[in-house]
Amino acid sequence: MVSAAASSKLVSMRALLLSILMVTGTLFVSNAMADDTDGDGTDDSVDDCPIAAGNSTLDRTGCPDRDGDGTSDLNDPWVMSTGGYQEDAYHSSNDDFIMVRFNQDASQYATAENSGGSGGGSAEIRIWDTSSRNNLRTIQVSDSARDIDWSPDGQFIAVYTSDEEVRVYDATDGSLYDTMDANGETASELEYSPDGTMLAVVGYRDGNSGDGQIEIFDVDTASPTYGDVLQTLNPSSTVYYYSVDWSPDGSRLVIGGYEVIYIIDTDTWGENRTITNAFSTLNSVHYSPDGNMISACSAWGGSNARAKVYDAITGAEMWSYTTSTSCNDAAWSPDSSQVAFTHTYYQSDGASINIFFATTGVQLDTLSTAPSGGCGSSGGGNNCGTVYGADWHPDG
Fold it and tell me: What's this protein's family per the entry (predicted)?
């Protein structure tokens, strides 16, 4: 028989245990509901743009809202909605411009120009004033450039060269700030994180003895480990990685491989999602500014190529466009309403930039550099140029 005192003590212990369970359960639920990946004050559970900070409230909650009227940029766009894009300026060269990038405030843009084409022996990185189109300075690079990117604060330009070096230059005077050795077999792409503290660098295997990989470099100028490799990624233990981009809030990294797209959580560097219905070599993958879509630009796959857009959260394909020639690069309008794809020289899509409505895939416009006869076999074919890269002005 249990005494009255023992019974009272047992009831008290049960009450205490129940209280602990209730408090613990409350804390657990509170933490689960308090996930705010992009840090904009809107819980992920109700955030329509969970990996892009924003303050929209009317049509969507927590999405980028540039003018602050409550309607998200996607549904309140400021780019031309009827097409009719026209040439505003023109730079000519005897060599190939393989990439162009605006700095964050669009006061300047940088071009990478390789002697002898994309695989030429040297490069010139030119920095231009956006308003006047004047060349402010030219950086001479002893190897050909594969990709360039501005640091978010506009202080540096990173150049990925064909000899697998990452060279960081001071954008104000063109001086070399630092050099980092990448270990991928063949240099491909690089991209600064949104906060400017990390640099993702992609190298792929091209059939020789090396392996492909993604390296994350510390590029925080205040860090004692600046230039060190923070993380090396090898998703699915393959060797074919070609393109990379950070989500707008930096919480995820998207990597383009061969017929596969990998999404990585940057807090753990583990795989968040794998998209397996991609096409051929992914020359370019980019998050939309609202973080909800991923563009995928594919190389020639035997009889055609593809330009696709995926839902970035679920991985579902939203739409696909079959191109007559390789897709080289993509650029999103700053309001996420449109996406542009660039192409190589062959047939109907040759030497062009195709612009689509982002959510539907309806083609809005085509910017063509093809000769009057077109790029078909009877119209000059291989005499067409290649549009290597594109970038969209932050003002649209």
Answer: Belongs to the THOC3 family.
**Spatial separation of the C-alpha atoms in residues 91 and 77, rounded to whole Å:** 29
What confidence tens digit (pLDDT) does each residue in 322-348 have?
A: 999 999 999 999 999 999 999 999 888
What is the architecture, at CATH level 2, of domain 97-180?
Answer: Beta Barrel (2.40)
- When pLDDT is averaged across residues 231-240 and rounded to a whole number, the result is 90
Q: Alpha-carbon distance 80 to 300, whole Å?
A: 30
Buried b (16+ CB within 10 A) or exposed e, 176-209: ebbebebebbbbbbbbbbbebbbbbbbbbbeeee
Query: Cβ atoms within 10 A of the Cβ of 246, count?
Result: 22
CA distances from 360 to 275, 295, 338 (A): 20, 13, 10
Written as one letter, the residue type at 60 is R
**Which residue's entry shows tokens 């505003």?**
88
Residue extent(s) of CATH 2.40.10.480 domains in the chain: 97-180
> In this structure, are residues 62 and 70 in contact, taking their beta carbons and an 8 Å threshold?
no
pTM metric for this prediction: 0.89
388 beta partners: none
Strands 363-368 and 352-357: antiparallel
CB 319 within 8 A of CB 305: no
Nearest Cα residue to 97 out of 121, 125, 135, 138:
125
Rounded to an integer, what distance in angstroms lies between the CA atom of residue 33 and that of residue 21? Answer: 18
Q: In what side-by-side order are the strands of the sheet with 108-114?
A: 96-102, 108-114, 123-129, 135-141
**CA–CA separation, 166 and 386 (whole Å):** 25
Tell me how far the alpha carbon of residue 72 is from its chain's centroid: 21
Please, are residues 325 and 349 in contact by the beta-carbon 8 Å criterion? Answer: yes
